[in-house]
Amino acid sequence: GTAIVCLGVAAFRKRKRNIKPIRYSIETVQQLAGVTYNYNTMVRPELRLSDELQYGFVAQEVEKVLPELVHPAIDPYGEEDDFVVMNYDGIIPVLTEAIKEQQEIMDDQQVTIEEQELRLDQQQGFMEEQQTVIDQQQGIIAKQQLAIDQLLNRLQEVESTLGIQSDVPAN
User: Fold this and answer.
1) CA distances (Å), origin 160, targets 13, 107, 114, 154, 166
2) What is the pLDDT of residue 30?
3) Which of 170, 130, 115, 126 minimizes the C-alpha distance to 148?
4) Strands 35-37 and 54-56, how do they pair?
5) What's the confidence (pLDDT) of residue 47?
6) φ, ψ at 166 (rounded to 5°)
């Protein structure tokens, strides 16, 4: 016959009850401290644990944040009274929800950035329009000043011809 080996946990909805969404996952993840470590191979050399760098968590620290994932266990060698095991797979849904929360925050921030860029573009356009108006006004003022100067010169000429002294300032 054929043997089927399944390594995993039953994930069918019908086999679960009291299903609730995971809340505050970002805050939870921020309290977790991922670490690198090496097994102390000198303590139990017969276990033949790898001396290579490992990535993980310290169960006692995770227990403070996610106590449901850390369980007391019997040390198979009877040497430790506070022996615990940790359900690493249980962290995956928390991390998944934290990523989703972060993505939602980033999406909201992107919308805000795009709205601010639009407002900035609008303000830049308004400023350019105002600069055009200012430039036009300065052109009009320059022409008016030239006309005033010409009129003053003409007035001075007329007064000089008539022999009248005026309070009009000379240019």
Assistant:
1) 107, 78, 68, 10, 9
2) 97
3) 170
4) antiparallel
5) 80
6) -120, 160
| The residue type at 15 | R
Other Cβ atoms within 10 Å of 105 Cβ, number: 11
Asked whether residue 34 carries a pLDDT value surpassing 90, the answer given is yes
What whole-number distance in Å separates Cα of residue 96 and Cα of residue 87? 16
The secondary element (H helix, E strand) that includes residue 65 is helix 59-65
* Those residues with Cβ within 8 angstroms of residue 90's Cβ, 6 or more apart along the chain or in another chain: 66, 68, 69
Taking the C-alpha atoms of residue 171 and residue 153, their distance in angstroms, rounded to an integer, is: 8
Q: Is the pTM of this model over 0.70?
A: no
**Rounded Cα gap, residues 45 and 39, in angstroms:** 10
Concatenating the DSSP letter of every residue in 106-160 gives HHHHHHHHHHHHHHHHHHHHHHHHHHHHHHHHHHHHHHHHHHHHHHHHHHHHHHH
Question: Residue 50 in contact with residue 75, Cβ under 8 Å?
Answer: no
Q: Which sign does the torsion angle of CA 69, 27, 14, 8 carry?
A: negative
Q: Residue 1 pLDDT more than 70?
A: no
